[in-house]
Amino acid sequence: MEQTNIQQSPGAVSEDGPDIFQVPKHIIDKEHSYEEDGIHSYFRHSQSYSKYAKDTVIGGEIIINKAKKVILDCDPGGDDAQALVLAFHLAKKLGIEIIGVTTVAGNAVLEQVVWNAQMCMTTCEVPLSVPLLRGEELGGGVKGKELAEYFYGPDGFGGTLLEYQKENPTAPRPHLIEDESAVDFLIRITKEQPGEITIICLAPLSNLSVAQKKDPLFATRVKDLVILGGTYLAQGNTDYYCSEFNFFKDPEAAQHVFDDFSDIVMVPVEACRVFRGMPKDIVEKPFIQTQTKRGKLVYDSFRVAFRNLRNHYETNDPLAVAIAMMPELAQEVIEKCCYVEAKGKFTKGMVFIDWHELMPQQSKDHHANKNPRRPVKIVTQVKIMEIMELLMESVLIE
Q1: pTM summary value
Q2: Contact in structure between 354 and 306 (CB atoms under 8 Å)
């Protein structure tokens, strides 16, 4: 098994970054320590939540396995379009087998998501042997739907799907399997290839949650999950502020997945904000290559999001694809047990991290079990220039 050793971050947050969450003075001044593990009053000495998180990271070495066989679980979505284009490119370049593409409602309603995924597969000339499967229409309710439509447009694809369907009302979906659901496919394929498949999760985790409920041994047969979603500093991108969209959309599913699966790599939304610190003329290059079919797909599907981001490009999902297929692109990683809050007036979908390691943990050779649990590998920084080069490669292919 090919593995990448990554030096654990001596600090998960840049010293130059803003201290957003200020700890109240009465908490800082209060005596508080953990004598049993030698960690003393970080609240006293840390003036912000970000610095607190940084100070609790202790050195070590973390291993992220390189994916060999992959299922892409997605909800296209403009950033999913770029992620799928990148995934199909890297799979061919690196000899990675894509077993299938499963869809779930998220950035648009389910049927639109299925169509958007098919457009990506057709544009990238994916072999018909790679199936497309219809997944769950779960989670989030009206509020989640409104968030997605506002950001990516009513079809989740910048209006591209609506234009395509108007011009091609009888267009086929050659990859779509009509007689098997995404959930049944996930259960069946992991029985046929136990311990071999990495699932790259670019969407709400509804499909995985339903599969695990239907087959309680499902989680034990999945090699690992690479999840785009969640937060590690509670700096989200929804109306709940501390929650990331995919986890907010179906928080119960996220909770179930973190409870039941043991090998998880999480690429949180904070790691994706590295684009904000880069010059616009560099960031925009992978988005404006309209001379190729793939480039035009990425450009068109992201055009509404571009306006909503105040004419600045930023993307999330491709980072999870890059880390799964080329784990050496993870620059800093921490490893902590994580819990997802399914409900709450202010915390729906929030990830809680056991910074002090006070909760029971599984031994490294023990598989999925609700309590204790295995730590999650949390990618806090990525090698963004290398990823930008790969994004450019992927959209310049004819």
Answers
A1: 0.83
A2: no
